[in-house]
């Protein structure tokens, strides 16, 4: 029965993926509706790098702290 579930769900994911690919046959949006023009090529992507690093540090500390609380400590 477990093999049947695996085959069934794999087949459903495959079939739904194919239908999704066929359904996405529309034209891209026009570029005239944008508020700002895209930046020229070759510019660095570091607009909010400090904020991103701060969020990553806080998230890392939170995950380490949570894992330490769940782990058994020896007496």
Principal-axis shape equals flat
Biggest sheet overview: none
Report how far apart the termini are.
45 Å
Described by its quaternary structure, the protein is: single chain
Radius of gyration, rounded?
Answer: 24 Å
The poorly predicted ranges are: none
Bin the strand percentage.
under 5%
How many E-type strands?
A: 0
Number of helices: 2
Helix content: 55-70%
Order of helices and strands: HH
Question: Could you please describe the fold and organization of this structure?
Answer:
The structure is a single chain. This protein has 75 residues and is mostly helical. It is built from two helices and no strands. The longest helix has 22 residues, at 2-23. The protein is flat.
Topology of helices and strands:
Blueprint: H1 2-23, H2 49-70
Give a concise summary.
The chain is an all-alpha fold.
Q: Which features characterize this protein?
A:
single chain; 75 residues; mainly alpha; flat
């Amino acid at each position: 029965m477990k093999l049947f579930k695996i085959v069934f769900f794999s087949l459903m994911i495959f079939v739904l993926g194919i239908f999704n690919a066929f359904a996405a046959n529309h034209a891209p949006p026009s570029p005239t509706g944008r508020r700002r023009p895209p930046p020229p090529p070759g510019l660095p992507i570091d607009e909010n790098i400090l904020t991103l690093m701060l969020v990553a540090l806080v998230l890392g500390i939170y995950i380490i702290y949570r894992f330490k609380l769940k782990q058994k400590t020896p007496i």
